[in-house]
Amino acid sequence: MEPLPDPAPLATKLRNTLLRYHGIPDGEWRLARRAKDATVWRKPSEEFSGYLYKAQGVVEDVTNRIVDHIRPGPSRLDWDSLMTTMDIMETFEENCCVMRYTTAGQLWNIVAPREFVDFSYTTSYEDGLLTCGVSLDYGEARPNFVRGFNHPCGWFCVPLKDCPSHSLLTGYIQTELRGMLPQSAVDSAMSSTLANFYSDLKKALKP
């Protein structure tokens, strides 16, 4: 089993990678899906043979509450229909941990359930927050699950300048599902999963 990495340099590298993604010009993205709650774009990933996805939408709540629902913790399992289990394996600081989680099958189970082990880090960004993660090759995969791999991913959440009670949530996701899967099925699943993520999150945040 690989040892856990030193969290400080990994957190710095992860944050810098997400900041670089956040600075990619609009012209490099191609529209993948436009839904009521979010718009999703994609471009070829620099990390693997799939796509880097960008999702963006306005969420009617304050930044801290939104990020508390997204980052590792009990709130996430309550509303994220894709996530079936989550365990915090190691906590380094309040804002930094390693978690293992499993996801449900998708597309009539063409995409079988997956397991991930991710390093997660939450930090400040402008007037809001960035919560980000990357998979680690750590621990034995559970039986009946394919071990997937998240290349650097993250969510920027900042209050709207003219309406601070609403936030702009921008996500960057590049998931390598692994296993024997047609790429077209993966791409179809990713766009709709990201759009559904916003609508599920909005329902969970309603008072």
Structure description:
The chain is of the alpha+beta class and 207 residues long. It has a single domain, classed as Alpha-D-Glucose-1,6-Bisphosphate, Chain A, domain 4, CATH 3.30.530. The protein is built from 4 helices and 12 strands; from the N terminus they run H-E-E-E-H-H-E-E-E-E-E-E-E-E-E-H. The strands form 2 sheets. Strands 1, 2, 3, 4, 5, 6, 7, 8, 10 and 11 form a 10-stranded mixed β-sheet that branches. A two-stranded antiparallel ribbon has the order 9-12. It starts with 6 loop residues before the first helix and ends with a helix.
CATH architecture: 2-Layer Sandwich
H/E element order: HEEEHHEEEEEEEEEH
* Residue share in β-strands: 35-45%
Question: What would you call the shape?
Answer: globular
Major β-sheet annotation:
10 strands, mixed
Number of strands: 12
SS element count, helices: 4
The structural domain count equals 1
CATH superfamily: START domain
CATH topology: Alpha-D-Glucose-1,6-Bisphosphate, Chain A, domain 4
Low-pLDDT sequence parts: none
What's the overall average pLDDT, rounded?
Answer: 90
Euclidean distance between termini CA atoms = 44 Å
Report the radius of gyration as a whole number of Å: 16 Å
The multimeric state of the shown protein is single chain
InterPro entries: StarD4, START-like_dom_sf, START_lipid-bd_dom
Protein name: STAR4 protein
Pfam family, one: START
Organism: Centropus bengalensis
